[in-house]
Amino acid sequence: MTDQVLRGRVLTFFDHPTSLADTDSFGYWEDGAIAVLGGKIDWRGHFSELPERYNALPVTDHRPRLILPGLIDTHAHFAQMGVIGSYGAQLLDWLEQYTFVQETRFDCDDHSGLIASSYFDELILNGVTTSVVYGTSHKNSMDAFFAEADQRQLCMIAGKTLMDRNAPDDLRDTAQSGYDDSKALIERWHGKGRLKYAVTPRFAISCSEAQLELAGTLLKETPDAYLQTHLSENQIEIETTAALFPAARDYLDVYEHYGFLGEKSLFGHCIHLTERERAAMKDSRSVAVFCPTSNLFLGSGLFDYAGMSDEGIRISLASDVGAGTSYSMLTTASEAYKVCQLNHYGLNPLESFYLMTLGNARALSLDHDIGTIEAGTSADLIVLNSIATSAMNIRMEAADSLTDELFILQTLGDDRAISATYVAGNRFK
Length: 429
Ligand code: GUN
Ligand code: ZN
What we know:
Layout: E1 4-13, E2 26-37, E3 40-46, E4 59-69, E5 71-77, H1 91-103, H2 109-125, E6 128-134, H3 139-151, E7 155-159, E8 161-162, H4 175-189, E9 195-201, H5 209-221, E10 226-231, H6 235-244, H7 251-257, E11 265-269, H8 275-284, E12 287-290, H9 292-297, H10 305-310, E13 314-317, H11 329-342, H12 349-363, E14 381-384, H13 390-396, H14 402-412, E15 418-423, E16 426-427
Helix pairs in contact: 2-3, 3-4, 4-5, 11-14, 13-14
The structure holds guanine and zinc ion.
Zinc ion binds next to strand 5.
């Protein structure tokens, strides 16, 4: 644990920006300082006002770079690193032709460990310090994932996928084994260090009613666990779900029936929701997870960001690696902007940087610890270089404001724009 002072241009959000002119929504210190003690932020403000008690600490001067909270990804599949960029299919064919094939390899401890380690390396390169992750149906894939995350002191939320039908033999669990394995993983990892468990029924198509019932039992038995699943991503998926669950009013009703809705429930995609489903999402304070690169790559559709946020639905932003095509949340935000443009909404850069940090932390009910630069929160921090490439440098010459700079960072930036990543005060990049 490195006690230290970081100096740089410090930016953190206080609230959801209502417009580009909403300067109350964030704090910005042109010559700022962050004092880090025991892996936590102890103080932040103007460097000139740094209290004397920190005088003995080493200072790392990142000026003129920007220091922000570590970025947060609210939906990704670590076992799909080997799937990104698989050509020519939409959701159900993509799962069958590419994804399930790769996921079967995770019954092996060595392979799971290797990919978990590579996944965290990639996150650090991209300044992502928290991610909400699907494993495979194999319990050992999650043991490997959590062990590696714990060793790096990362705040991670993850779970073993539950899938007892409509998948290859090697990937299917049973309702009972899925329950037992999840239960054992919860006992071993949930609440250990900075780790949290998400009960993870893959989606309605791959779960029998008995399995969904037992997933609901797991949630009742672990009230502070998360729930993650996929919802209303693709038209054929929606029709298939309706045929499998003829008694359900709609897709979300399948999940509602088993008690899945709530503040800690994350529903990936939510592209084709009906009015009733949207109202139920809002009333239950469930989170709709916007995965722009995935939705474009699989041709799934355009997430209605403006409409759903106007209705008061909680929204988070995510990569959905490996249907999603980038580990970078900057690139993800850039694609979110384009999806919103196609829906005639201009997602402004304050809003997208809010989403990647405090917004996603709030969606995970973790804003007391991550997504912000406040005393008492974990020192998960990144340093951004707005002139990391010559293309960025040329464009930055014409930048006339902080918001312009942020928009350049998301539009032209990627892992090259992340010059440092700190996790609980330790520098990993
Ligand atoms: N629906 C069920 N499984 C998956 C998955 O792995 N990726 C995406 N994008 N959608 C899914
Ligand atoms: Zn997904």
